[in-house]
Amino acid sequence: MPNIKSAKKRVLVTEKKTAQNKAIKSALKTQIKKFLAAVGAGDKALAEKLYPETVSAIDAAVTKGIIHKNNASNKKAKLAKKLQSIAA
Question: In Å, what is the CA distance from 53 to each residue of 7, 28, 42, 59?
Answer without folding.
Answer: 39, 10, 18, 10
